[in-house]
Amino acid sequence: MAMLVTRPQPDNAATATALRAMGHEVLLAPMLRFEALPFPDEAEAAYGAVIVTSANALRAIEDQPVLARLRALPLFAVGKHTARAAGQMGFADVVIADGDAAALRSKIGETLRGKKKRTNALLYLAGADLSRDLAGELRADGFEIVMQTTYRMAPVPVLPDDVCQAFAAQRIEAVLHYSRASAGAFIDATRGSGIEISGVI
Predict the structure, then answer these.
(1) In this predicted model, what pLDDT tens digit does every residue of 30-53 receive, in sequence order?
(2) How many domains does the chain have?
(3) DSSP secondary-structure letter at 150?
(4) Which residues, 6+ apart, have CB-to-CB distance to 11 below 8 Å?
């Protein structure tokens, strides 16, 4: 029997490796596809720091000219995974929060307390779909925020052929979901692939 991982690439590979190490057969069906968006950088724009709530936001600017300029700035990362991605991309001054937007807001406030009037606008690299208005909360705290949407996660409309065949043969015993969006995309993809599934949680 197999486990189906719906996590987007490239993070699904790490999940699959961990599950296989535990003896599970694993199938992959990423239900959300990463799409980088252009960064309309203005050379005269001056930023005091970069804010990142997802490694995907950094991945989106990896091949864009603005990266060289942003590397010289302090970067506030939501957690260790995002901080690691920032370090790999050449950011040297990385401040790490405790893993969620509330902790990130607190960390920014603690670090920049008393410097608001002397700090240039903070650049928030964001995804298209946000579960929390971090930019608005930081503005309420007195910071000037420039929010730039750098990527979106687009739903994948159908399941891979090998996954469809595994469902038809009743080989899949569990489906792992990682967000409400990916779970919804999975339900739509099963319908688009002509598969009926019961017992989805």
Answers:
(1) 999 999 999 887 777 889 999 999
(2) 2
(3) E
(4) none
